Structures are given as structure tokens and as C-alpha cells.
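Purpose: get a first structural picture of the assembly so the mutagenesis plan has something to point at.
Setup: two entries, given in the order below. No constraints added.
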Amino acid sequence: MQIALKFYVIELSRYIIAFLMFIYTTLSVVSVFSKKKKLVSVCTSIQSGLLLVLMFLCFLDLTFVSGQEEYLYLFAFITLFLFFMITIVTIIYDKSDRILLNNMCLLSGIGLCIVSRLSFSKAFRQYIITLVSFAICLAIPFFIDRFKYFKQLLWVYAGVGLVVLSMVLFTGSKVNGANITYTLKGITFQPSEFVKIIYLFFLAALLYKYNSFKWIVVSALITGAYVIVLVFSRDLGSALIFFVAYVMVIVMATHNYLYLLSGIFGGAIACIVAYNLFDHVKVRVVAFLDPWNYIDDQAYQITQSLFAISSGGWFGGGLMQGRPSDIPFVNQDLIFSAVCEEFGLFFAICLLIICMCCFCRMMMLSYMIADKFYQIIVYGIGVMYIFQVFLTVGGGIKFIPLTGLTLPFISYGGSSVMTTYIMFYIVQGIVIKSRNYESVHDERKTSPDTKISQ
Amino acid sequence: MILINVTMIIFCVLFLAMFIYLGIFVSTSTITLYNNSYNNRQELQGRNVLRGTIYSSDGEVLAETRVDENGNEIRYYPYGSMFAHAVGYSVNGRMGIEDYANYYLMHSGASLTDRVNNDLENIKNPGYDVYSTLNVDLQKVADDYLGMYNGAVIVTEAKTGRVLVLISHPDFNPGTIREDWETITSNPDNSQLLNRATQGLYPPGSTFKIITALEYYRENPDTWDEYAYTCTGNITHGDYRVSCIYGTVHGDLDLEGSFARSCNSSFVNIGLSLSRNSWEDTLEELYFNRPIPTDMLVNSSSLYIGAGSTDYDIMQTAIGQGKTLMTPLHLNMITQAIANHGVMMRPYIIESIVDDDGNVIRDYEPQSIGQVMTEDEAEYLTELMMAVVEYGTGRALITDYYTCAGKTGTAEFANDINESHAWFTAFAPAEDPEICVTIIIEKAGTGMEYAVPLAKRIFDAYFGVEN
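Result (C-alpha cells, whole complex):
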């Protein structure tokens, strides 16, 4: 009897999970693009409930298939956490953005689910890190509201970021040929993740005040220094993210499309130079262009990833039914392939649409923020986030060469999870701050969303 | 702000492109990637699925998995080595249909309730069954006659490209391949595993005159029937001399006579008159030097004619010698195109995939891969090939029961004529072709003496002629 039940659970849960995910995604898209406030608040409320049901089904499936009760406990903990995150944040910060909050919860939950399927002990660590991150993040909106000197620390940001990155380059530990981690008292950090935030503050602090050509050159030089240090640490993915974020932010701050053109041009030259100069870049390109010929060594990872995606089909093989562990670094770089194999492509595309919703939401929020300093930060965080998703997913599916980054929220990795949390809560903090400011104004003026209608 | 919208549009477009790419990837490459030997998911499937059965076109079992009382699975091949290369094997790697249809053989279409019941009774779910296009009776005739000779036989349906017979000798026993593996693979000269019919590259010899004749007909649409040549047993051009087989003096010949008698001198004469660029185009159209579209594992035929060819190269190529190499399958496809009004069909060996209840999951349809010659050209080549049987090198095929059109070949690769490969490619009935037969017998002698009689056996068997 139990075997029969197990079969039905495995077989049906794939479709039900995909279906619920589809509804959630639809609601998410509607709430991002709709201008009817009532509709949005109904959507987000349904979403909050839906994501808990979704989590329940995933973990029920995992428990049934593995026969291990631990999964139920993990589920209880995760549910508790998600429930608290939604309620506490909405109570303390009633002006926080519900759309972003829901999507964070969902992405975090799915991440924990897939990581726990790959390795239960890693999922437990990931859960602890998520808790710690959340605790830290709770203070961020408060801090952003009260701390007055963010705009004055231009040179501090520039210096700290560079010093941290160089320290890692020269004294960090080598992992898989890349000098990007730093171990302190048994805990391994990947500082380039955190430096992303400092770097954005630097850009914002510079550009909100100056946008003359002279200052653009100064910012370009400093960005160049960041990128070069990263390239020498072999952290090519991060280098690309810094570069793209820089170009987009400059164009946004100056409204000068010439910078976009010169950015594309300069980027292309840099790519060609990097290709000819560094062997590890060449290897990635070779594996991208002709993976089947190098299936033994350079392209082993990408071909295993392709096997996983193709075997999942549209609705996946079901949790615990595939072999995602065949893929090297599946927990970090190629977690998307594991999602594809077991949840199916339909679910995976929904997941990416949700990432897009987060990004679009941030873009719209940045549009509504009057203070240029904060506007640049929200915009920059949005671009960095979505570009990282693009690089990671695109690399794993052989759409572009593999760069070896983590998928924010989903991948295993403390620095990655914590940084993404901090980034999203900085956005929340800025939104809360500007909404508070608006509501003060509203008492005097009439229409609340005047900026939208203009 | 426009810029924020632009940023959103850029990334939306990027992601949309990625979704489309992923959708196409998953819907098109699942089966090929599953078959890759680096994909360990096959082993995963083997735990739950009992490999499906392979049938001939008339429902005879060609390969099935039997489970003994201890639960051991044994892949059983009722016809032993007869379908060795066509059906192939599935241990120590894979070959033939066992390889091409591996994805289906290892996936089950059992319903959810069936799967639950199977799991309760602790038996595996049945994989899909595969119906091939192969014909057991014809295969047996060809296999018996080829006997101890090395070589290959391929028979296809003229209008569809279905493969009825596929034989390659020397062969092996797929049922004992695991035990024989060491012996077969330890000797580098052992070519038992090579499928000569689809991968063997041979000089085509005089069968290539079909193509030379086609090119001459193409270049001289109004004057080809005025062609005249007097054969003196050999032809000399510059420093080079080419002789007719056995030094035979063929005397006065027109184009049909040159073809029917397979006169080397006359064809060297024709070859030297042809435009190299136009010839190159014709060869390209006929799938020389490029991959042949089929699901089977094949080699491409290779040959060079172009601006850089010397006169000597042309003399050799015109009669199918020199550097020209062809697979029997490719020659069969060209024969098939002649028999089918110039339309070449994609050769295929899998008819359909069915589930345990007999429902067809996938049906393979005949597929044209191009009009490689005009109807008029095909008709003309048919006439030439009929002449071969009427009064040329294929006279052994004269019978009251059917008319046959074909071309013999004797591919010399050594000085001794008895060491030549015997070729024959033909179709019948010439008026309304049904099957195409291509035969190569290695180191047997002339096509006329060795390959033609085997073709006759196959045609007789197909048309139900009692001997």
C-alpha cells in the first residue's frame, strides 16, 4: 500500500508542483506590472499562502521518496522561517515591498529544497546561514533610515573594496584554480560577493554628485582596478558583473548613450584580450564552442549539465529520481541544471521568470525613488542580480561560455546567500525610506503616486 | 525614464532568447544525449526497465531480453549472427538498432497503475518495442549466399528507402559478444565489428560509370546520342594508359554500348571531355564528400574532382578507380534515386516504436532528401542499366519473371584481377521498381561472375520465383 502511495506521490507531485509554480509565477507577473493596488495586494496575499503549499509538497515528496523523516523536520523549520520572515517584516516595516519579499521567500525555499536533495548536511548549513542573514538584514532598513553619512564615504568605499579584493588575491586560498576565498577561523568567505555591495555604494556616492567627463574617467580607472584584480584572481564571472554594472549605472546616471556604445566596444576588446592572454578563458570558450569533442576534460562539466537538463524534459523526473550529482559543482555553479533535471524545464522557466520579476520590480522601484544616490544603488543591485542570474544559467545551459558563478538564493554558498539577502534588504530599506518620505509629503500634497502618472 | 525601460527590455529579450533556446534544446536533443556513453542515466533506467524487443517487419523476434529463474537478464538473438550488424548488440557498447533505438528500448510506456503493480510484484516495466524494416527471408538468402566471403549486401525499397536487408561479413554473434569481446578486439586486423554496408569505404569500380554517364548526359543534352567511340582495348592520354578488363577489344560503341559492356577506354574518353566544375556540382548533389542524412552510423563517400585535378586523376575517376571511395549504402541510394524518378529517399531501418499494448508511439515515415537528378535523367540511366542486363555484363539476370536494370563493377585494388572486389547494383522491376540491391564481394573477382548471381537469388526470392 505504501509503495503504491509512494508511486502516486512521485508521479503526481511533479505536475502539481509545476502547476502551482505556474500560478505563483502568473500572480508574480501580474503584481509586478499591474497598477491596481487592490489587485496587487490580493495577488501577494495568495502568493504567500501558495509558496507555503509549494514548499510542503516539495518536502512531502522528498520525505516519501527518501524515506527519511529529517526532511519533514527541515520542512517544519523552513516553513517556520518563511512564515516569520513574511509576518515580522510586514509588521516591523509595513512599507516594505511585498512583491520582493514573497519572491525572496520562494527563491530561498526552493534553494533550500534542491540543496537538501543534493546534500542534507549542506542544506542544514545553508539554513543556518539563511537565518543569520535574515537576522542581519532585519536591521538594514533601520540603519539606512538613520545613518546619515552613506553619501560622504566615497573614498572609503573605493579603498575598502580594493584592499579586500587585493588581500584575497595575495593571501587567499586557492580553490579550483581560483584565488577567491579567504578562510578565517574555519569559516570560508568569498569576499568578492560582499565587495559588490561596497562597489555599488562607491559608484552611487560618486555619480550622484558629479557627472562630468573627468569624474567618469576617475570612476573608470577605479573600476578598471577592481576588474583587473578580479581577473588575476581568476574570478572572471565577478569581473564581468562589475564591468556590466558599471556601464549600465554610468549610462543611467548620465543619460548618455555614448557610454553604452563605448562600454560595449571596450568590453568586446577586453574579452578578446582576455581570451588571448589567459588560458583559463580559452578553455571555457573551447568547451562552449565544441563541448562534445572535449567531453573527457575541459567540457566534462558542461556536457554533464546538458545531460541533466535533457533528461528532465518539460516536467522533470521527480525529486530524487535523477542523477544531478554527476555534475561537478552542481551545488554552486550548476544548480539550475539540477532544478531542470528533477523539477523539469517548465518549472525552471517559471523560476527564471520570478527572477525577472524581482529585477523588473527593482527597476520600477528605482524609477520612483527621488534621491539619486539611492536610485543608483537600487538600479545597480537590480542589474547585478539579473546579470548574475543570466551568466550562471546561460553558462550552465551552454547559451554562453560557463563563468562559474552562483545562482543567487538558490545555490549553496554562505557568502552568496548572505550577499543576496543584504542586497535585497538594502532595496527594501531604501524603498521604506522613500515611502516614509512620500507619506510625509502626502499629508501636504494630494496624489500619492504622482510620479507614475506623469 | 526611458533608460530603465531600456534596461528591462534588454534583459527580457536576453531571457526570452534563453527560454527559446532551452525549449528547443529539450525537445530536440533528449534522445541523442540519452544515448551518449558519458551519460550515466542509462544505468538508472536499467534498474526499472526491461529492455524492449526488436522485431523484423513481419513480426519475427530479432532480439529480446529473457529473464531466467534467478532473475538474470539475458539478451537473446534468435537468428545468431545473421542480423549481427543490422540489429547490433547492447553490451560492451552498442551497435545497430540496439544503438539507434536505445532510448525507446530503455523507456517504458507502462501506465501509472501498471507501474505500481509491477513494483509490487517486483518485476521491471517493459521498455518500448521496436519494429524494424528488415525482411527475414531476404536477409537469410543473402546471408547464405555471401557465406564465407567478406563483403556487404544492402537491399532497400525503391520508393521509400526502407532497408530490407543489411549484411556485412565477416560477422559476429551478438548473443556471445561479451565472451568474444577479447578475441575480437585484441587483433587490430579483425574487422568483424565494422559494418561494411554503411561504413565500409571501397573503390566503386565500374559502378561509378553510372555517375560519369549521368554527367555526360547532363552536359550534352542534345548530342549525347551521337556519341561514338572505337575501342582498341586500351586508351592512351599523355603518358598514361588505361586498359579494358582482360584487355578486351570492344570495337565500335555508342554511349549505351560503352555502358552495357563497361568499356573502360570509352569512359576514360568521356571523362576527359567533361567539365570539372559541373562534375563537382553533380557529385555534391549526389551526397559525395558530405554526411548522408540517416539515423544509421555511416561514413561519407570521398572523392575529389575540381580545378586541381590532373588528367590522370580524371581518367581514373571516370571509371571509379583512383582515390574514389564509396560505401555500399551510398551506391544503393544513388541506384534508388534512379529507380524513383530521381528522388533520393532517406534510408531508414526503424519502422515504428510500439508500447506494451501495441499502440504506436512513433511512426517513421519515408522522407525525401532531394531530387538529385531530373526524371528524364533517371529514365535515361534506367535504359542504360537495362541494356547492361539485356546484352552487357549483367546477362545472367535475364529472366521471364521480371526485368532488371543494373550495373556491374570490378574494383581493382591490386594487380591480380582475381583479387578484385565484385560489385553489382540493380533494381527491379525496371518498369515500376520495387527493390534496389547493392552487393560487394571482396576479393572475389569480377562483378559479372560473382555479384550478379547473388542479386538474382535475392530478386528471385523477393518476386517468389521458384528455382
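DSSP finds 17 helices and 19 strands in chain B.
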